[in-house]
Amino acid sequence: MTLLQSIILLCCLTLITVLAVIVLEFRWAESIRLQFPDHSFVHDWLLTSLVSMVLLTVAVGIVLMASIFYRWKLKKPLEILMQASEKISANDLGFHISYEGKDEMGELCRVFEKMRSQLEKNYRVLWRSVEERKELNAIFAHDLRTPLSVLKGYSEFLTSYLPQNKISENQLLDMIQTMNVHIVRLENYTEAMSSIQKLEDMPVHTQTMEMDHLTSLLNDSARQITRQCNKTFGMSMDVNSKKLVLDIYLVMQVFENLMANGARYAASHVSIHYSVSKGLFSITVTDDGSGFSEEAIQKAVLPFYREEVWGANEHHGLGLYICKVLCEKHEGNLLVENGPNGGGSVTASFFTGLINS
Length: 357
Known about the structure:
With 357 residues, the protein is α+β, with helices and mostly antiparallel strands. The protein is built from eight helices and eight strands.
C-alpha cells in the first residue's frame, strides 16, 4: 500500500470515527435540551459546549490520524535512514539497510542501500588505489637503491684510481658505457613509474642483446653488490645462443634484487648460473647461507613478507615479490627453493627470442 493510499484510508476511518463521535455529541446535547426546555441559559451554554466539543473532536481526530500514520508508515524507516546517515558521516559503511515496506519509504530505503553499497565499493576501490600507490612508491624506492649503489661504486672507483692513472683507456670507456646503461635505465624506470598506477602496469620493451654484453652488465652489477656486502661471487653459463631478445632493464632489475637478497643472506659466497632452454633465459642465484625456511618458501614472493633475520627491518620485503611480478610480465616465472648443498636458491626466467647467428 502506497503512502497516498494509506493516508486516504486513515482519513476515511478518521472521518467516520469523528462523525460518529459528533453524532453522539449532538444526541447528548439534544437530551440535555429536552431535560431543560424552559431554561434559556442552559440552551446558550449547551450550544457553546457543543461547538467546542465538535471542534475538539475534529482536532483530536486529526492529531490521532497523523500520529497513527507516523508510527505506521514513517517512524521505522526514518529511524533506519537517520542511523544510516550517521554511520556514513562517520565513514562506517560496513552495514546494511533492511526495510521490507512496499511503499515509497521502502523504496527509499532500498535506494539508500544501493547508494551505501556503491559508496562502499568506491571507497574500497579508492583504498586499493591508495595502497597500490603506496606499494608502488615503496617498490620505487627499493629498486632505486641498487643501481644508485652501482653508480656510486663506479664513481668511487674512478675517483680513487683515475687521478693515479691506474685505469687504462679501454677500462675507462667500459666503465663509462656501463654507467651510461644504468643512467638510461634509471631514466626509463623513473618515467615508467611516474606514469603507471601499479607494478603490473609496467611496460615491457624488448631489444636484441649480445649474450656476452648482457652477462657482462649483470656480472658488473653482481660485483658491486657483493663487494658492498664483503662477499664474493662466481658465475657459470649454459648458453648456446649468441643473442637474446629481452627487456634488458627489466632483467637487470630482477637480477639486482636477487643478488641483493643473495649477498645479504650469504655466509661468504654467491653463485650465479645463466642458462637458456625452451625459449627461456634463466638466472639462478644461490647463496651459501642457511637457506629458506618452509614458511619462507611458501610466502617469500608475497609483498612485504620478511623473515625474522638480521637486517630485516632495513628492508621492505618487496624484492622477491617485485621479481615474481616482473618475470610474469616477461612471460616467465620465479622459483624459490633451497639449493642441493644448502643455502637459498632463486631462479628467474624470462621468455626470449633466440638468435644463434
